[in-house]
Amino acid sequence: KAGVTQTPRYLIKTRGQQVTLSCSPISGHRSVSWYQQTPGQGLQFLFEYFSETQRNKGNFPGRFSGRQFSNSRSEMNVSTLELGDSALYLCASSSTGDETQYFGPGTRLLVL
Amino acid sequence: GIQVEQSPPDLILQEGANSTLRCNFSDSVNNLQWFHQNPWGQLINLFYIPSGTKQNGRLSATTVATERYSLLYISSSQTTDSGVYFCAVVETGGGADGLTFGKGTHLIIQP
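The joint structure predicted for all components is written out below.
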């Protein structure tokens, strides 16, 4: 089985712009979670989607949003980018009845 | 929310040495995973171990849920074991089911 894939792998944006990141889960996995990793805050949970519905949300401002499609692929969007949004964004998928989360390679976002 | 503490924060060993990494958590959990983050940033699953003991080759892990800690053992270390090791948990009955990560143990294996 192919693993979790994320696109793009690297991205450079400027303050005030918006960005959309994409995640394709492992085939058959219906849950997709997003995490942000920064040197200062470490790894933090953003949100989780299951069957096209946001099931859980971490403590992030409304500028961070996401969605999931019927094929379980997910996108996350960050609007009005700030310098502090520079981070590695990781996506993870899991299957029903299995709590194990499998991570993709991440998207490195640099905001200038 | 639940607190996760990992120790030691940094560990430098010679190739062939054994190591023990510790993860303490502040409340009961229904999910505990160990990950190895490689130099390119990808989190590699090592174990899903909310309780009990598991082994996979040179790696093994033990979680004592009643005492709220987990240990990751690496035997006969190789340079490829270098990287950051994370423990992550989901609190039992927690409102947000995302993983809560510790700050990691940065392991360097010298040849």
